């Protein structure tokens, strides 16, 4: 069982109090620091992130305040539960604010947002824009985005760079193509880079924006579920090195994230399901009510029901925004967003990138993390069953590929970014649904048992 030898222990829980509008301090959070190697998160009641409706209504409206020039109507994530997705007017964007002081920014979520040029244009700095996209997305959405940037705005000129599609191009050579275009087009410091695409494009364009002329303005237009619920929010940008994924990069926050849910209409089914793995993750680590909602609405999500998707994206962004606002640079708490990822990365690396999508590997990884949590006696078996059930229903894997061996897992996990002082820290579930810990204090024998239970050799 967990030893108590580590010197510090950080536990974060929230008082179940109503949110204070525009609260930039963490005063409504109860933080007890005992161990930086282990973070325990109970956050169903955390209400620091403000979920904002341009035109709010019903139960979601708690109070109104002004932030800068924007009118804000704030609601806690707990209150948002009461808002039935069907009540959302999909043409009116929902806004989730990422609260990072002077680097705060809005996430706009809704249908038809690319037909509302003013949303994008208010975040463009300067007169020059570079849209970074790939050869799959360009034919589908590039014209629409150029129109949204320029309609009624003749002073702005837009260049674009179309990269080859695929994780294998998330590298330095492809990044150089962005810089080539920016330099050839004589873009200056007051330019804006726009990422139009999935997580690969978002991560690469963000890193290009962070480093071109030491940093230019940056906007995210994510077009996969994975990017809309996860990668476009929080400012992690970067590229892969041949020796490992995402090893080169920067924290660099965008000016805004614009999520037009209509873009999901062209997304392949397998990519949709892969993104849902991250949605399910939020429920498991910190939002039991959201998990229950997912159990009831999974069919609608798979059928791409627009209001169900919009709600799942909004709720996911709220969860991510909240964690990022509390721990932007991942000193502990943010690591909890990696439930299943240590096992998942081993699958992605061991099985070969591109064989399984990221969300598929994470789904199998979550099952393994849940299995370990159960072996440790930290959760009851009803959670194990529910996780299997929801992943199966989402058509996601519930076990690693048969070719994975215990040794393959161990060798990749040994170089995981979450290893500290030789100790592999994992995100594990503990307590009732919606609670997790990030810790190196677990019985290593149980980890061995989990690996052997999922691998033939
Ligand atoms: N920065 C972060 O915090 C973070 C978090 C999670 C994942 N990531 C990164 O994100 C990447 C995975 O992102 P992804 O799953 O979006 O993969 P992706 O960017 O490769 O997109 C998946 C596929 O869907 C296509 N596509 C995208 N939008 C489409 C649309 N609307 N219609 C049709 N096709 C479309 C893409 O061209 C691609 O072929 C990985 O590189 C991962 O490391 C980053
Ligand atoms: Zn992930």
Secondary structure: elements and pairs:
Layout: E1 9-14, E2 29-42, E3 51-53, E4 63-67, E5 70-75, H1 77-80, E6 94-98, E7 105-110, H2 117-121, E8 128-134, H3 138-150, E9 157-163, H4 172-184, E10 191-197, H5 199-211, E11 217-222, H6 225-231, E12 236-241, E13 244-251, E14 256-260, H7 269-286, H8 288-302, H9 306-326, H10 341-351, H11 358-375, H12 381-393, H13 406-413, E15 419-420, E16 423-424, E17 426-429, E18 435-439, H14 444-454
The chain binds nicotinamide-adenine-dinucleotide (NAD) and zinc ion.
Zinc ion is lined by residues 230, 278, 341, 358, 362.
Structure explained in plain terms:
It is built from 14 helices and 18 strands. A hairpin with a 2-residue loop joins β15 (419-420) and β16 (423-424). α7 (269-286) packs antiparallel against α8 and α8 runs antiparallel to α9 (306-326). The protein is globular. The chain has 457 residues and is of the alpha/beta class. The chain has a 10-stranded mixed sheet, sandwiched between helices. Strands 1-2-18-17 form a 4-stranded antiparallel sheet. It folds into 3 domains: 8-69; 94-268, Rossmann fold; 280-454, Dehydroquinate synthase-like, alpha domain. 49% of the residues are buried. It has helices at residues 77-80, 117-121, 138-150, 172-184, 199-211, 225-231, 269-286, 288-302, 306-326, 341-351, 358-375, 381-393, 406-413, 444-454, and strands spanning 9-14, 29-42, 51-53, 63-67, 70-75, 94-98, 105-110, 128-134, 157-163, 191-197, 217-222, 236-241, 244-251, 256-260, 419-420, 423-424, 426-429, 435-439. Nicotinamide-adenine-dinucleotide binds at residues 134, 136-137, 140, 165, 167, 170, 197-201, 203, 223-224, 226-227, 230-231, 234, 236, 246, 263, 266-267, 271, 274, 358.
């Amino acid at each position: 069982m967990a030893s108590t030898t580590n010197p510090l222990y950080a536990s974060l829980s929230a008082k179940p109090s109503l949110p204070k509008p525009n609260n930039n301090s963490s005063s409504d959070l109860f933080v007890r620091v005992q161990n930086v190697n282990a973070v325990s998160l109970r956050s169903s009641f955390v209400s620091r992130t403000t979920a904002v409706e341009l035109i709010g209504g019903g139960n979601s409206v708690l109070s109104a305040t002004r932030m800068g020039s924007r009118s804000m109507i704030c609601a806690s994530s707990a209150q948002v539960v009461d808002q039935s997705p069907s009540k959302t007017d999909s043409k009116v964007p929902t806004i989730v604010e990422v609260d990072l002081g002077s680097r705060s920014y809005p996430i706009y979520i809704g249908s038809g947002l690319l037909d509302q040029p003013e949303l994008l244009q208010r975040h463009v700095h300067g007169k020059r824009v570079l849209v970074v996209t790939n050869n799959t997305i360009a034919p589908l959405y590039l014209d629409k985005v150029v129109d949204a940037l320029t309609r009624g705005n003749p002073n702005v000129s837009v260049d674009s760079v179309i990269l080859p599609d695929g994780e294998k191009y998330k590298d330095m050579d492809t990044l150089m193509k962005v810089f080539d275009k920016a330099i050839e087009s004589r873009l200056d410091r007051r330019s804006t880079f726009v990422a139009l695409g999935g997580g690969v494009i978002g991560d690469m364009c963000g890193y290009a924006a962070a480093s071109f002329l030491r940093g230019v303005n940056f906007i995210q237009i994510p077009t996969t579920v994975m990017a809309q619920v996860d990668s476009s929010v929080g400012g992690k940008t970067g590229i892969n090195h041949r020796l490992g994924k995402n090893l080169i990069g920067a924290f660099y926050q965008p000016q805004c994230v614009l999520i037009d849910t209509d873009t999901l209409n062209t997304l392949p089914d397998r990519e949709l399901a892969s993104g849902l793995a991250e949605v399910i993750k939020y429920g498991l680590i910190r939002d039991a009510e959201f998990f229950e909602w997912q159990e009831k609405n999974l069919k609608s999500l798979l059928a791409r029901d627009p209001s169900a998707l919009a709600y799942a994206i909004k709720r996911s962004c709220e969860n991510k925004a909240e964690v990022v606002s509390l721990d932007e640079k991942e000193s502990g708490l943010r690591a909890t967003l990696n439930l299943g990822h240590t096992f998942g990365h081993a699958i992605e690396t061991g099985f070969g990138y591109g064989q399984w999508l990221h969300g598929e590997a994470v789904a199998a990884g979550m099952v393994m993390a849940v299995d370990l949590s159960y072996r440790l006696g930290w959760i009851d078996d009803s959670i194990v069953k529910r996780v299997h059930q929801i992943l199966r229903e989402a058509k996601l894997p519930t076990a690693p590929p048969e070719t994975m061996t215990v040794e393959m897992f161990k060798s990749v996990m040994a170089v995981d970014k979450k290893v500290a002082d030789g100790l592999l820290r994992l995100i594990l579930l503990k307590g009732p649904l919606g609670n997790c810990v990030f810790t190196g204090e677990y019985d290593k024998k149980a980890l061995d048992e989990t690996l052997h239970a999922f691998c033939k050799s």
